[in-house]
Backbone:
């Protein structure tokens, strides 16, 4: 793994969301890996492992559309001189039963994004070029007609961890959509490893270079952390602005934007709670192992975000890796003390930071297919049973949003 990647995760991802350099190994796709060709059928170094993502657990089949959104009201925070901000989002929604066969299943990563993902080698000890990322398919069907009978559906936004693509929470986002939600996943351009736009244009992350430019200075690193979170919150609030007109007409008919929530992993979890603090349109939010302070270790006190200092008056859920709870993560404790809203903190014994991403569903199978040491897996997702981790996360998120977004009129806490 490149040195700058390890450094970036130690300083940027860890500071934003309790990540560690080991989280670099926590990126992948699918729940089952298999050799896609017999030995010798591919050139040396070419992808040889294909993946299958775990099927959603809800009753709905899924449709999906991708949208390019352009915010002309602000300059890009990462590209000097660019007078607009450009994002890609995916919208997952319950689809009409019986029509999905005519619509292909969407890939987990488009080819350009997949190539960039492998090139940065986000997987630590896993040889990324041995995995055929572009061949992985989700369970959502591109352009499938929405199921108009079950709506309107609550809307839930998703933000991934630092450097992660919007697709790296598919195990959770697709399950939530299959249970009767419209889920909007957001790529944070120049933060994510790579974002692929229409026309096969790929924009790559600038964060490794930005971190190197700090020279290791603590205050400059903290400023970079704040810029990263502020950019994400601005992105998410813009998405909330854009959805009423950007959604295709049919999806507008079944999207209940009066019942909107959000969740995210790592920096995305931080952004979810911070966005809810800043924007009353979010009724509830869940943070999957994201620290709420501009610090480099979860247990470091001080430098709290405004959401931790001010608290929240709407429901929130915290889910942490083994050892992360209200007593050990000072920013979480501050949030709980300063909040008057219903909230819950759940810690999964044996889990690690990468447990809350698609890594938990795919890394064990990748390691098995490539004969990698068990330590490659446990360093990223801990010793928890992957199947148990997936079910527990899915059930907690589904219960939380079902409870918090159940009332289509009143924004009162559950």
Residues:
């Amino acid at each position: 793994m490149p040195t700058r990647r390890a450094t970036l995760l130690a300083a940027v991802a860890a500071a934003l969301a309790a990540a560690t350099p080991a989280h670099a190994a926590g990126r992948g796709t699918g729940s089952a890996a298999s050799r896609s060709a017999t030995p010798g059928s591919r050139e040396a170094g070419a992808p040889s492992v294909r993946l299958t993502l775990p099927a959603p657990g809800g009753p709905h089949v899924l449709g999906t559309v991708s949208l390019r959104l352009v915010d002309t009201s602000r300059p890009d925070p990462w590209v000097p001189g660019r007078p607009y901000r450009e994002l890609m989002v995916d919208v997952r929604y319950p689809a009409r039963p019986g029509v999905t066969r005519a619509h292909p299943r969407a890939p987990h990563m488009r080819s350009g994004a997949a190539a960039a993902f492998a090139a940065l080698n986000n997987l630590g000890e896993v040889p990324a070029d041995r995995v055929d990322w572009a061949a992985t398919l989700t369970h959502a069907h591109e352009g499938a007609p929405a199921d108009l009978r079950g709506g309107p559906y609550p809307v839930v936004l998703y933000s991934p961890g630092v450097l992660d693509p919007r697709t790296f929470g598919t195990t959770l986002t697709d399950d939530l959509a299959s249970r009767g939600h419209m889920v909007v996943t957001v790529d944070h351009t120049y933060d994510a490893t790579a974002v692929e736009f229409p026309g096969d244009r790929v924009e790559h992350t600038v964060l490794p270079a930005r971190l190197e430019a700090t020279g290791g200075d603590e205050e400059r690193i903290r400023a970079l952390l704040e810029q990263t979170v502020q950019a994400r919150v601005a992105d998410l609030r813009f998405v909330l602005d854009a959805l009423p007109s950007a959604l295709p007409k049919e999806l507008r008919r079944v999207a209940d934007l009066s019942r909107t929530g959000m969740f995210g992993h790592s920096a995305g979890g931080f952004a979810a709670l911070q966005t809810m603090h800043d924007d009353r349109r979010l009724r509830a939010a869940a943070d999957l192992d994201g620290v709420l302070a501009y610090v480099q270790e979860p247990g470091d006190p001080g430098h709290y975000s405004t959401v931790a200092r001010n608290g929240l008056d709407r429901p929130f859920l915290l889910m942490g890796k083994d050892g992360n709870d209200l007593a050990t993560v000072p920013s979480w404790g501050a949030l709980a003390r300063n909040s008057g809203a219903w909230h819950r903190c759940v810690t999964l014994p044996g889990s690690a930071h990468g447990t809350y991403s698609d890594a938990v569903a795919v890394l064990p199978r990748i390691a098995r297919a490539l004969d990698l040491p068990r330590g490659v897996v446990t360093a990223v997702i801990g010793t928890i049973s992957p199947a148990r981790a997936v079910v527990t996360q899915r059930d907690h998120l589904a219960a939380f949003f079902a409870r918090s977004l159940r009332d289509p009129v009143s924004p009162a806490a559950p």
